[in-house]
Write a structure and sequence with these properties.
With 285 residues, this protein is mainly beta. The chain has one domain: Beta-galactosidase, Chain A, domain 5 (Distorted Sandwich), CATH 2.70.98.10. It is built from two helices and 22 strands. Strand 18 and strand 19 form a beta hairpin. The longest helix has 6 residues. It binds 6-O-phosphono-beta-D-glucopyranose. Keywords: Isomerase. It catalyses: alpha-D-glucose 6-phosphate = beta-D-glucose 6-phosphate. Its EC number is 5.1.3.15.
């Protein structure tokens, strides 16, 4: 079976040997392997029992990025919204000559009563994970199935496994304006993004669709090809922040970088019966 479910985890297996795992808690992609090598980072201290968001892989952020601000309705929601802490269902699976696909679903009838009260809109999310030999696509479709418009942010909060944070370069953001959440100021990126300390930057309206994460001189990397997602967040917690996170090892910041494609700088407004979709395709460089 190209897609099987074991306890709370959907496992996608491609004939090439590539594989992926998606935890139904948050529809969080927790593994993507090509050539037997893990490509996404999940903390050794990640909590997988559904009591908090999974620290790593691709948590799916919806309907708010970070903490919502009053008087917006998202202000009372948990940080990064409820999608990553809700239990999704494996709704469909299929295969064709090149890909193995699994679809996950969440809607207003399957979130908790508490979240439903805090965000009283009728919605349907379909998250599609498509695994090929050397690539993986993650695609989100948001549908307003109610009679009230709603606003949302969304983000594919991807944690990449990297050999060494001090050598990594994120290419494709030069010239883009960003909000530096560490220094709390706006800046313009000059050249590649490198990690020399805590980084938490929100690049709004990134025109290029392809962003490269280069691991180091001659060490390969991963390309993020985004569709319908205007913004990129780059995050590495570095030393102090790592020490303050119970579900993240003190030294793990060396081995990860988050490069997150989404729509977070502005809310997207979705009218009744409206659809929105966005996706990313990850491929090895
Ligand atoms: O600890 P959380 O809620 O998973 O968030 C992790 C990080 O997620 C990033 O996307 C944010 O820009 C950071 O500010 C935040 O710290």
């Amino acid at each position: 079976m190209p897609v099987s479910q074991k306890n709370s985890v959907a496992v996608l297996t491609h004939p090439s040997g590539a594989s992926a795992e998606v935890h139904l808690f948050g529809a969080t992609l927790t593994s993507w392997k090509v050539d037997g090598k893990e490509r996404v980072f999940v903390s050794k201290q990640a909590v997988l029992d559904g009591s908090k968001a999974i620290r790593g892989g691709i948590p799916l952020i919806f309907p708010v990025f970070g903490k919502g601000k009053a008087p917006h309705v998202t202000a009372s929601l948990p940080q990064h919204g409820f999608a990553r802490i809700s239990r999704w269902t494996l709704a469909n699976s299929s295969e064709d000559a090149h890909t193995v696909t699994a679809q996950f679903a969440l809607d207003h009838t399957t979130i908790s009563i508490e979240h439903r009260e805090l965000w009283p809109y009728d919605f349907s999310l379909v998250y599609t994970v498509k695994l090929a030999a050397n690539t993986i696509e993650t695609h989100l479709r948001v549908h307003n199935v109610g009679d009230k418009p709603f606003d949302f942010n969304t983000l594919l909060h991807t944690y990449f496994m990297i050999p060494d944070a001090s050598k990594v370069r994120v290419i494709g953001l030069s010239g883009c304006d960003y909000t530096d959440k560490v220094l709390q100021k706006s800046s313009r990126q000059e050249g590649d993004v490198v990690i020399r300390g805590e980084v938490d930057s929100v690049y709004a309206g990134v025109k290029l669709s392809d962003i490269q994460i280069q691991f180091g001189e001659g060490e390969g990397g991963i390309q993020v090809h985004k569709n319908g997602l205007g913004d990129i967040v780059v995050w590495n917690p570095w030393i102090e922040k790592s020490a303050g996170m119970a579900d993240f090892g003190d030294e793990e910041y060396h081995r990860m970088i988050c490069v997150e494609a989404g729509q977070v700088a502005e809310f997207i407004a979705l009218a009744p019966e409206g659809y929105w979709e966005g996706s990313q395709v990850l491929s090895l460089l």
